[in-house]
Amino acid sequence: MIIVLQLILFCALFTLMVKIGVGSSALNGLYFYPEPVQEKVYELGLTDRKTVARKRKRFMIAFFAVMAAALVLIIRVWNGIQSFWPAYLQALIFLEVMNWYDGIVIDRLWVGHSRFWVIPGTEEIPFVQTWPQVLKKRGILTLIWIAGAAVIAGIVSLL
User: Fold this and answer.
1) CA angle, corner 129, sides to 29 and 35, nearest 5?
2) Where are the domains of the chain?
């Protein structure tokens, strides 16, 4: 089924965007970490709040622009959908899969099992979300993406 291939490619793009965002150092993605890790990094002098805020803003703008554009292209161009409700359903599926992919594959598997994400000097501070934290965050984002899908569907139907 073509939608499964599209979902795999969409999640691969998500992963690529994160990898590009952090580059060769987890410090470049410090804004992804819990506050205790961030505070320890500032205390160690590895970076500062202003730099992290700038990197976060730059990444988030690029990330949301690329992911939204990719989703609109998949739905409108690749799938040929023009009307709101079919676009809404597809957008919702993609955004929810992305949401849970982020929590399970990115947060729990990649971050949780890769030495890349361990910032020297912060090893003793937990930074990987627990399963209850993942479930809570992803549950909240599931509700948020209900509205996000409407935005994407609106763009698709206007094109």
Assistant:
1) 55
2) 2-158
The position carrying tokens 């698709």 is 156
d(C-alpha 37, C-alpha 50), whole Å: 16
C-alpha–C-alpha distance, residues 134 and 36, integer Å: 18
Please give the pLDDT value at position 48: 97
Is the pTM for the entire model greater than 0.85? yes
63: amino acid identity, one letter:
F
Question: Helices 2-22 and 49-72 sit at what angle, rounded to 10 degrees?
Answer: 160
Backbone angles phi, psi at 119, to 5 degrees: -90, 125
**Residue 45 CB-density burial (10 A; 0-12 exposed, 13-18 middle, 19+ buried):** exposed
10-residue averages of pLDDT along the chain (159 residues):
97 98 97 97 98 98 98 98 98 98 97 96 96 97 97 97
Q: What is the DSSP letter of 86?
A: H
Residue 58: per-residue pLDDT: 97
| Tokens matching residue 44 | 């160690």
